[in-house]
């Protein structure tokens, strides 16, 4: 399974944004794989259309029936913004290894703690530990927003 884009594209993206891979970072192909997995896992079900190759397709893109800005996206195209979003996620993974793969538990959550005269109360979470712990990257969300399906109420009055 390959990530979106290619190693040269990732290198160009990093250079254009003034980034350099940290010493000891995984290979570019590994970072692209992890970045693509993050994109597909978090946003794949929210993209408009469906995978061109059906349920057995390795990646969420290319897609059939996808659109952005009111225009259809050809079924053989992977939008540049999707590739760049995967590069942004790859950069996150390079600088904070493992940050894209969340594991969470509410078993040890503390709401209020008192030690002597000092009492601390923590922010209340949503109740869904996985959602609360999921890394959201603003650059990724901005790039992918035009490709996401907006679900609207389907109640019609006649």
What is the topological layout?
Blueprint: H1 7-16, H2 28-43, E1 50-51, E2 63-64, E3 67-68, E4 71-72, H3 80-95, E5 112-115, E6 118-121, H4 129-133, H5 138-144
Antiparallel strand pairs: 1-2, 3-4, 5-6
Helix pairs in contact: 1-3, 2-3, 3-5
How does this structure look, described?
- The chain is an alpha+beta fold.
- The chain is 34% helix and 10% strand.
- The strands form 3 sheets. It has a two-stranded antiparallel sheet. A two-stranded antiparallel sheet has the order 3-4.
- Helix 1 packs across helix 3, helix 2 crosses helix 3 (80-95) and helix 3 (80-95) packs antiparallel against helix 5.
Give start-end ranges of low-pLDDT stretches: none
What level of helicity do the residues show? Answer: 25-40%
Q: How many DSSP helices?
A: 5
Oligomer: single chain
Short structural summary:
The chain is an alpha+beta fold. 34% of the residues lie in helices and 10% in strands.
Task: Looking at this protein, list some descriptive labels.
two-stranded antiparallel ribbon, 6 strands, 158 residues, alpha+beta
């Amino acid at each position: 399974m390959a990530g979106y884009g290619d190693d040269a594209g990732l290198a160009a993206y990093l250079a254009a944004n003034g980034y350099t891979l940290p010493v000891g970072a995984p290979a570019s192909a590994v970072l692209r794989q992890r970045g693509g997995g993050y994109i597909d896992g978090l946003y794949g079900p929210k993209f408009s259309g469906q995978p061109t190759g059906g349920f057995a397709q390795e990646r969420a893109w290319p897609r059939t029936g996808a659109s952005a800005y009111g225009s259809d996206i050809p079924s053989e195209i992977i939008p540049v913004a999707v590739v760049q979003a995967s590069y942004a996620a790859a950069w996150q993974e390079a600088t904070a290894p493992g940050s894209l793969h969340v594991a969470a538990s509410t078993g040890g959550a503390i709401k209020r703690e008192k030690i002597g005269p000092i009492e601390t109360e923590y922010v209340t979470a949503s109740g869904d530990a996985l959602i609360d712990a999921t890394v959201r990257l603003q650059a990724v969300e901005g790039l992918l927003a035009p490709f996401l399906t907006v679900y609207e109420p389907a109640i019609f009055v006649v």
